Amino acid sequence: MIGKHEPSHRQGRASQAVMWVECKVLEAGCGGRRRSLRSTVMRLPCSFWFLLLLGAGGLLLLHLQDLTETLQQQNQGAKVIFSQVHAIRKEPCPYCPDNNRQTDPTEDNFPRSAQPVQLPVFPWVQRSSQINPKDITAAHVTKSHRKLLLKSGLLVQQLNADPPGQIKENPEQLSQVQLSRQRLMREVCAKYTSGSTKQTITRMHVSRIFVEDKHKLLYCEVPKAGCSNWKRVLMVLQGLASSTGEIQHDEVHYGNHLKRLDSFDQNGIIHRLKTYTKVLFLREPFERLVSAFRDKFESPNSYYHPVFGKPIISKYRSNATQYALRTGAGVTFKEFIQYLLDVHRPVGMDIHWEPVGHLCSPCLLDYDFIGKFETLEEEANFLLRSIGAPSNLTFPSFKDRNPNAERTSLEITRRYFAQLNVTERQRAYDFYYMDYLMFNYSKPFKDLY
Ligand SMILES: *[C@@H]1O[C@H](CO)[C@@H](O)[C@H](O)[C@H]1NC(C)=O
Ligand SMILES: *[C@@H]1O[C@H](CO)[C@@H](O)[C@H](O)[C@H]1NC(C)=O
Ligand SMILES: *[C@@H]1O[C@H](CO)[C@@H](O)[C@H](O)[C@H]1NC(C)=O
Ligand SMILES: *[C@@H]1O[C@H](CO)[C@@H](O)[C@H](O)[C@H]1NC(C)=O
């Protein structure tokens, strides 16, 4: 649709970008209304709006191409086009999501107007004629893809993924690990994005990235993977505090001290993407999912219970009590998974359980550092030393959410997944399959394929 032909090894991301823009437009258009009516009646107009906006979005982007500067990234040969579609950004929680205040509605900082986004599940599958079906954002991976990967040996490799907690002693080892993670990520990205011709980065793609200008760091926030402590570190690096220990929880989440990359102008974004260290920290996908579930649904929460709990209970619980329907409290893990995997979700996605492949666009942004929650402190400190952070700054280990609850471990994760049947487990794995593959996490259950 837009952009000129790119070198083949980089092909394939534009359609993804365009698709994302259009999906976001859709969310802004139908998310709120559909939530209140909660029936198939609304789906028709919603699809209609989708098609309408799809057309309009295309035209808009075509037009924007005339207006926006395009830039050839010399080292990558990638074209970066920033469309000025500000209105598309809509999210349930604009801050680092691990916040605690939701139990007190009077202090609740969630903007009331922001509805959870209603992203159609697998739009790339349903509307594959308009987009590249091999798109990396595809949460749903077909069996033929799986075969292809098996053939290439990638799947076999990822089955022997990093054992959690493994100690990597020295900097050379740690840089080797980085190199192999990057190689794998690029390989998987190349496989899933071949065949399309364009690559576009929009503001939307960089909206989850925090900027630290002094040490030239870009950090993409992944909730439930050390995000709060990273924000503390960024605040210290920036000179907003002299140590991570003195930053209170609320300051981290409500202080709004850190800038996001999408708040800069086009040149500012391009310049930072090209010259800063781009960092991503992630976590075993099922563990992250269980951690999010426990955090949002197992303790009182004045946002997630009414906004997500109510529609989930009313759709998936056959004999729900009036109390449950009124409060949205007590969602079970099974009900939560039914919602997650539903093609017609009664309420939109949320960044806490959105795959990292969507949140941080790793195939588009080509991160320089891919860290893992399982070895968080060691890898974070390695990174801090290599960007020249003050030597007395080390990565902290505060647990912000529910400090009395046990941290979600592999063992706890297994306990939750044992509540599901094999079909549900398989579909949940398919949902996060790209995260598993791209970041070399091993298959979490033996009976999965
Ligand atoms: C995946 O992790 C395993 C175990 O640490 C490692 O041996 C392998 O090289 C990794 N695969 C890739 C492609 O990096
Ligand atoms: C680190 O050193 C700086 C000065 O070099 C000082 O201001 C800061 O308080 C120190 N931080 C900690 C945690 O000791
Ligand atoms: C209905 O609720 C009761 C208790 O609340 C539960 O024991 C029972 O299994 C439920 N029945 C169905 C069909 O869900
Ligand atoms: C698994 O649970 C789902 C409900 O989420 C149900 O529809 C499906 O029939 C179950 N499958 C099996 C094999 O029990």
TrEMBL record:
It is found in: Golgi apparatus membrane. One of its GO terms (cellular component) is Golgi membrane. It is an enzyme of class 2 (transferase). The keyword Glycoprotein applies. The chain crosses the membrane at residues 44-64. InterPro entries: Carb_sulfotrans_8-10, Sulfotransferase. Its main location: Golgi. It is a single-pass type II membrane protein. Keywords: Carbohydrate metabolism, Glycoprotein, Golgi apparatus, Membrane, Signal-anchor, Transferase, Transmembrane, Transmembrane helix. One of its GO terms (biological process) is carbohydrate biosynthetic process. Its EC number is 2.8.2.-. GO terms for molecular function: sulfotransferase activity. It holds the Pfam family Sulfotransfer_2. Belongs to the sulfotransferase 2 family. PANTHER family: CARBOHYDRATE SULFOTRANSFERASE (PTHR12137), CARBOHYDRATE SULFOTRANSFERASE 8 (PTHR12137:SF7). This is Carbohydrate sulfotransferase.
